[in-house]
Design brief:
There is one protein chain. This protein is α/β, with parallel strands linked by helices. The protein has a single domain, classed as Ribonuclease Z/Hydroxyacylglutathione hydrolase-like (Metallo-beta-lactamase, Chain A, 4-Layer Sandwich). Strands 1-2-3-4-5-6-7 form a 7-stranded mixed β-sheet. A hairpin with a 2-residue loop joins strand 1 and strand 2. Helix 5 packs antiparallel against helix 6. The protein is globular, with a radius of gyration of 17 Å. The relative contact order is 0.12. The structure holds zinc ion. The site of zinc ion has 7 residues, from helix 2.
Length: about 260
């Protein structure tokens, strides 16, 4: 099941909780073209989004190749302008992406049969700008949560699409050596005065809260360990926090 709503004119979010995990994708509609940021966990999740696009030319974008962001692609008809991801994201489709699908198919028989893995066919390494007609979406490589993570910036609206590079109550850290540059990249977004809203794939939609909280968390993780976390953390985030500490303390690089 997923829920679709327009949070400002031509900016839609679609939230799915069909797989125990809450995840959000975003639709940006320009005068000439539209863009869908992430395809959620399975094709049924994105059918409502596909209906809003109707016959407008559109791109799909993967914020990164983790399963909860890329498994719903078959919910869109063919004929899109392209499927965009970082070059590292494409590589993962020949590596951990099919492996995790196989593992989940075995763990939950019948649940994932409609998933079709579709790798990006338009890749970039540093930055890419998309003219949607009246609106521009800029994509920037932001390695941190994963090597292939990107963020999206819509200057005209002051909106940052964070994928899992920003998350509340806290982000998932997989690579100790990427934390410093990840933090620097997010701190530079914090200095953008026109940035009024950050939209993470998981977590708070309030203003810049997700950006600010992620920066505060990563700063504490890399520094004094004075975390300002909610008293009540869901199990998933309590465990993630403990794992993040182990990753950073051990200098670990978690690859599937
Ligand atoms: Zn995610």
């Amino acid at each position: 099941m997923s829920q679709l709503r327009e949070i400002r004119p031509n900016l839609w979010i679609c939230e799915s909780s069909s797989s125990k995990i809450q995840v959000r994708s975003v639709l940006v509609v320009g005068e000439k073209r539209a863009v869908v940021w992430d395809t959620l966990t399975q094709p049924a999740d994105v059918r409502a989004l596909a209906a809003v696009i109707e016959d407008k030319p559109y791109y799909l974008i993967y914020s990164h190749a983790d399963w909860d962001h890329v498994w719903g692609t078959a919910g869109f008809a063919d004929g899109r302008l392209g499927l965009i991801g970082h070059a590292e994201c494409r590589l993962r489709f020949g590596d951990d992406v099919p492996r995790i699908l196989q593992r989940m198919k075995l763990a939950e028989l019948g649940k994932w049969e409609s998933v079709r893995l579709v790798p990006p066919n338009l890749t970039f390494t540093s930055a890419l700008s998309l003219d949607l007609g009246g609106i521009t979406l800029e994509l920037y490589h932001t390695p941190g949560h994963t090597l292939d993570s990107i963020v999206g910036w819509i200057p005209a609206w002051g909106v940052l699409l964070g994928g899992d590079a920003i998350e509340t109550p806290l982000p998932v850290v997989n690579h100790a050596k990427l934390v410093e540059d990840w933090l620097k990249a997010l701190e530079s977004w914090q200095r953008v005065a026109t940035l009024s809203r950050s939209i993470p794939s998981h977590g708070s939609l309030e203003g810049r809260e997700s950006l600010d909280q992620t920066v505060a968390y990563l700063r504490a993780l890399a520094g004094d360990r004075q975390f300002n976390l909610p008293r009540k953390l869901e199990n998933f985030y309590r465990e993630t926090h403990q794992k993040n500490l182990i990753v950073v303390d051990g200098g670990l690089d978690l690859n599937e």
